[in-house]
UniProtKB/TrEMBL annotation:
The keyword Iron-sulfur does not apply. GO terms for molecular function: 1-phosphatidylinositol 4-kinase activity; ATP binding. The lineage of its organism: Eukaryota, Metazoa, Ecdysozoa, Arthropoda, Hexapoda. It holds the Pfam family PI3_PI4_kinase. It comes from Folsomia candida (Springtail). This is Phosphatidylinositol 4-kinase type 2.
Length: 401
């Protein structure tokens, strides 16, 4: 299969990495290398495999040794994207638009939301979102319209018969797709699985404290990005519990690893709304109904988060980084983006207050919805930034879904 590439005058194939490559990320060479491994694997015939769960077109991508290394979600195959291979979402939108879709979100920006969640995670040092960035990939297994496939087939036929014409084509093969590329995590299971286990097999106090801290990281992330799609099936838990038999010699106990527990926040594509939900559904955080959410925030999470989120320069830097990420979308609207950041700033304000007051996650989500708007005002011949705080009064009809 031919991937996007160029040809010399002698028609020899040139790797995309010898010319400009949008997948090369200068400040993260290890991530760039993983993307390159994926492209090499695709060129060798190890193609991405569609994930049949979920409501969008998403794919496991692999390395040249056939190992899954990431999940790729193309922009045009999102739930309401024009090439979503799962027709049920199209039917939902066509037949009952008021009950499906999220009116508080910018349509078809899920790939940016995935990368944005990773950015927030990195800035706050939460370390629960698998690293995610925006890349461009092409594969026969992606969903393309018939015309694109016919064009690619025709170009290949022309080049095979008349090699000298190859340089006349701007692109050989199928068009690349822009989407989110999230590193694959191993050894994790759905949170729902472990939560049920913990009910019958309670954790030891030391592990419970460790898990509570991990859970609080998830709460902080979801609240700041105002995740509208967090159920117990789209965050993961890895619990490494050493298997020790009664016959284990005493001298071997020193080599037994202590139990460890980690949380991974995946499926972050339905976040960063430009307003709080105020129509049909509330899109609650389902973790708020867990017993862990009734425990007041720990000193550990306060020490990790408060020094950063209480610093207005840090918050502005975060918004600036989000701007650089979001503006690469062709449908970017600066006014809408400012509204998204208004929600984000309001969430940070509430979070800071909850942490300082010693509240719990469930008390945090019960706080009034705040929006912090930033605008410019010209007075006395000079421009100055104006910050305004307001509460969103409108509430959705159904608060439990």
């Amino acid at each position: 299969m031919l991937s996007p590439a160029a040809y010399h005058d002698d028609q020899d194939y040139i790797s995309p990495f010898t010319i400009y490559n949008p997948n090369v990320i200068p400040d993260d060479p290890s991530f760039s290398d993983l993307v390159r491994q994926t492209e090499i694997a695709i060129d060798c015939g190890i193609l991405p495999e569609r994930i049949y769960q979920g409501s969008s077109g998403s794919y496991f991508v692999k390395s040249s040794v056939n190992k899954t290394i990431a999940v790729f979600k193309p922009k045009d195959e999102e739930p309401y994207g024009r090439l979503n291979p799962k027709w049920t979402k199209w039917l939902h939108k066509l037949c009952c638009p008021c009950c499906f879709g999220r009116s508080c979100l910018v349509p078809n920006q899920g790939y940016l939301s995935e990368a944005g969640a990773s950015l927030v995670d990195t800035k706050l040092e939460l370390n629960i979102v698998p690293k995610t960035k925006v890349v461009r990939l092409v594969s026969e297994t992606f969903n393309y319209v018939r015309l694109d496939r016919e064009k690619a087939r025709a170009k290949r036929a022309v080049i095979e018969r008349f090699p000298s014409l190859g340089r006349r084509f701007n692109r050989i093969g199928l068009p690349p797709k822009t989407g989110s590329f999230q590193l694959f995590v191993e050894g994790y299971k759905d949170a729902d699985y472990w939560i049920r286990r913990f009910e019958s097999e309670p954790l030891a106090d030391s592990i419970q404290k460790q898990f509570q801290f991990e859970f609080e990281r998830l709460v902080v992330l979801d609240y700041i990005i105002r995740n509208t799609d967090r159920g117990n099936d789209n965050w993961l838990i890895r619990y490494d519990k050493p298997e020790v038999s009664k016959d284990t010699p005493e001298e071997e106990w020193a080599f037994v690893k202590p139990p460890a527990i980690r949380v991974a926040a995946i499926d972050n594509g339905l976040a960063f709304p430009f307003k709080h939900p105020d129509s049909w559904r509330a899109y609650p955080y389902h973790w708020a109904w867990l017993s862990f959410a009734k425990v007041p925030f720990s000193e550990d999470i306060k020490n990790l988060v408060l020094p950063k989120t209480s610093d207005m320069n840090f918050v502005q830097d975060l918004c600036d980084d989000m701007y650089l990420l979001f503006k690469q979308d062709k449908g970017f609207d600066k006014n809408v983006f400012e509204k998204q950041m208004g929600v984000l700033r309001g969430q940070i304000l509430n979070l800071n207050q909850a942490l300082k007051d010693g509240r719990s996650p469930v008390q945090l989500v019960q706080m009034p919805s705040v929006i912090i708007e930033r605008s410019t005002d010209q007075s006395n011949g000079s421009l100055r930034s104006v910050i305004k705080q307001r509460f969103q009064q409108e509430s959705p009809i159904f608060s439990w879904c």
